[in-house]
Protein 1
Amino acid sequence: MELFSFLFGKDGKEVELLFHGAARQVTGSMHYLRVGERWIALDCGLYQGHRREAEEANRRFPIPPKELTAVVLSHAHIDHSGNLPYLVKQGFSGPIYCTPATRDLSAVMLQDAAHIQEEDAAYWNKKHPGDPIEPYYTQEDALAALSYFVTVPYDRTFPVVPRTSCQFHDAGHILGSASLSLTVDRNNGLSPLRIGFTGDLGRRGLPILRDPAPLPECDYLISESTYGNRRHDNPNDMKTKLAEVVTRTVARGGRVVIPAFSVGRTQTLVYYLRQIFEEKLAPQVDVFVDSPLAVSATEVFKMHPEIFDREAQSLRQSYGGSLFECAHCNYITDVSSSKALNDRKEPCVVISASGMCEAGRILHHLKNAAPDPRNTIVIVGFMAVHTLGRRIVDREPELRIFGKMYPLEAEVKTLNGFSSHADAGELDEYLFPLAKSVKHLFLVHGETGQYEPLAARCREAGFAQVTYPERGDRFSLE
């Protein structure tokens, strides 16, 4: 009877973790915490992959949405937030806790995700009338989900469910991103259970954002492991290297084309390019940001200078306001202006989505830029296998774009220091100080070649137990 009370509390209700998304993979983040009869979801991301696998992952929740009490959202990236409208559509009606900047970014990103799904479904159904599909949610559903968002600033304790409170800590990954520390009060005079969740961790020295804040000591920790076995270039070198690329390309009369994610990476590039031109590190040329989502996301960045780092705050004052505007920076939303860029003869910089070159306006820019040796294609993020971006990184002699083959004659330059994910060394620095307090470390959001080496290092650092759970694994917490 005493053991029963210790494990489950005086009222016989246990605390339990259930792993669902981003378990031994890097997409569709979603983990569940049960406290008594209440279920809390940590993130609710959209699984992005092959259609049939995505259908299975995104349309089936292990806990019926109506039985879920609350969601705590780490950040706005679609693989962490993108299934929230479908969760609401299926009956969830509780609060979705997040930081103010995460809420504002989610407002534009979820609408964009819904628009893409609607277009994809319409295209598929036209081509395959005998096998129709439906989007997970519409733009109207995305708007409805936003009404459940509840914003809480960093470092303020807030109640989630009875006996359970939470704090957000700056994760330094994207604007508004947070790591979570949850506290569960227990009966019989037992000390509270402390549960940490890193979300996606950023890096020290990234521009605009503050460095990741350390998590408080905890008993159980869920950590990402995306780059658990990979090292990035120093982010402090990126401005100089980008300036060198612009200088070299302009000298030969070419253009710089940069595939970049609309949220985070695009704003960093504009931030650096303005400094490069202000400091005369490269010839000043026009910069075109050709992505409607990037334009909307940049407006959200302008709304939240209170969470910029000291350097960005100082530059913002010296520039008289915005870090993301200057005389030669042009934001493009309409299709006609986007097409007109390909007729320009003068050197310029074009930043466009999508980041992995699989869709979007970047394809038109690559089609025109790749065959010309005067141009440079700059890769500033990870390119997954089987993507056009990876084929560019591998310098395949020809690229298939819109069903046609184009020679790759342009220079290709990879700048790995722009990554917003902590690398192996940075994960070690973040996690190892917690080894003494953590009883069980769970590694998620990583693939085999990344989480296994990280797990080995964590065991050597003194973590008592390290697990990389599979989808559906459940763990009772003391």
Protein 2
Amino acid sequence: MKKNLSLDLFISNRVNTKKKKYALIIGETPSNGARSPKLWNRVYKKQKNQTKMFPADVSIINLKALISYLKFDDAFIGSAVTAPYKEIILKYVKFISSEAKVIGSINTIKKSNSRLIGYNTDYHGVMKSLISFKKKKKILILGCGGAGKAVILASIKKFKNAFFYFYNRDKKKLNTFIKKLKIKNYEIINYKKILSLYGVDLTINTTSIGFNSWIFRNKKFYNLMYFTPFSNLNKVHGIKSRNKKEFLRKNQNCINNDKLNYFKFLEQNSNCEFFDIIYNPQMTTFLKLAKINGHKILNGLDMNLDQAVKAFCIVNNKEFKKINILMKKNG
């Protein structure tokens, strides 16, 4: 079986191979650097288990067909789900855990007979990472995607007395989610308001801005690893091929303006700490510039590992403590 599978090739290979148990990580391009296959497969190997996890790169057009196929494949035991499908995939999974219903996204699927059950382990991973931060008064959370919702829910439970600023490009989506949570001390802000905030003591980036990956949109390529979530993405220029030098040349002014805006925020919020749920790269521009200015920072490496352990345990019916030790030795 090949490591990177399109839907058609994946189904074709499953039909022509021995029916060994397998798990997947489903996303647009998880083969470009997702950690779960490495982590899960190391544990399987340690346990002398022939089960393997594979990345399944699937277009949104084929997502429903893949889920339908997996439902009736006896060899399939479960899956991790990554961007951008954590919310979309809810439509195709009928049985959802309570925390996933509140969050409105799933990142783990467990196969039980012919039923697919959706879970959200991002919440578990976030809660463990937030232990690193002490009491906070003002918190800014950027983004409200699949993982972003888990971050928001975990943060308001962890910091019950804090005042929250929430920002998302899709304001309507953010507003709908926040209303479900019935919290009082918050403000949904626009891009301009972010740059004028003072006294924030924790900023969390849950967006994909800063992640090292090429995105293909409207026949052009983009790589947002050079930007912070304080950037104005409407001004970012795409290019015709995956050429880093060309992309940087075309966007140098935009990158410089982004840094100026971010430095202004850092100066206005001198006691702020920064948490970025991105783990590739481990030091995003968002964290790097904050560290240079003397701020405490935390990346998403531990969060990603903790949620992966939890997901593995759910899918494989294992105890968290034992798997946690095995994964963290190899993580």
